[in-house]
Write a structure and sequence with these properties.
Elements: H1 2-9, H2 15-21, H3 26-53, H4 56-66, H5 70-75, H6 84-92, H7 97-107, H8 113-138, H9 144-162, H10 172-175, H11 186-205, H12 209-216, H13 221-248, H14 251-272, H15 275-285, H16 290-301, H17 308-336, H18 340-360
Helix pairs in contact: 1-8, 1-9, 3-6, 3-7, 3-17, 4-7, 4-9, 7-17, 8-13, 8-16, 11-16, 11-17, 11-18, 13-14, 13-15, 13-16, 14-15, 14-16, 14-18
Length: about 375
Amino acid sequence: MFLWTFGLGLYNYIWPLYLRDLQASPSDVGLVFSIGFLALALSMIPGGILANKYELKTLLIIGWVMSIPPPLMYYFARTWTDVIPGIVLFQVSGFNVPAFNAYIAGAADGAKSASNFGITWASAPLGIVFSPLVGSVLLNWISVRSIFILTFVIFSISTIVLFFMNTQPPLESDAKSPRLEFPRSRREGSLLLYLAGAALAWSVASPFIPLYFQDALSIGPSIILLLGALQSLGAAIFAILLGRRADTRSQGGTMALGLLLSATGLIGIVLTRNLLLAFPMVFLIGSARSPSLIAYSILSTVRKGASRAGQYGFYLTMESLGFVLGSYLGGLLYTLTPISIFYTTSTSFVALAILAWLSFRHKPESSPSRQ
């Protein structure tokens, strides 16, 4: 995960700027993100079913292999519409996310589920901590387009590394029930509402923060990559710290804390409009997705007898549809007035913090076990 996200981080935070260089408007940027997230959403349910029936390591490798060609497709793009086939393939490669979460759940100590999810997923932003620093330096000598070649090489190496992982066959109970798991309780319904709502709220702002830095603060790509590295550092640190806190204290309270920290950073960027102050604000923004990692850990233990990946397939589909709607809405809002995305996301985060605190402040009396 670290090596793969290292390759992604070389361009991820300036991806909207690259689309703009290809003549994309803010609404076009939102559309590109929406198309990609729609492809991801459509892959989640099949991915969940496959993860119930087949060996998980194999599914992880297949998804990693599928992610290798897109950087080359971006390299050869000449207009923003040319990147669409690549972004679709890249996002469809995420069909193995249910398998990835099931792999973590299968290897995790149930008492420390949130920590396991936090630490494992923290390797993703940790990879993007270092690579934007490298990318920032490389931009002094090469173009963004050339960086895609380096990403292609790193993705290839990352895929080879996966062959050395331990295998993990599906649980017998999962293999016999390759179905989707729909919410059956108030707690599960609240979990679904949170995941979809958090994805929608975050994607209203996240694709357009680099554009705002360029438009409002006149920041260049190299500095934007440095800010992206700091955001990823915050994401890695908060994923671990909040995950550990959720294991020992209120899960809902911890989720609310992460959301409020991120909302503070978003509002701080708009109010300060200062490059120096943007650095601590961006660090706080990094906590935005940490509460969803806690939600994943809740999902892994919320119902006795549920198939591991069957739940992830459905819930992650709904979450991905939130990303689809949010990124498209964000493009429209940014076109009208750029600061509206910050207020929309931060206000939504406050509402979601209340939902998380009310729904998950108490752990269930007995944690269900997987059979």
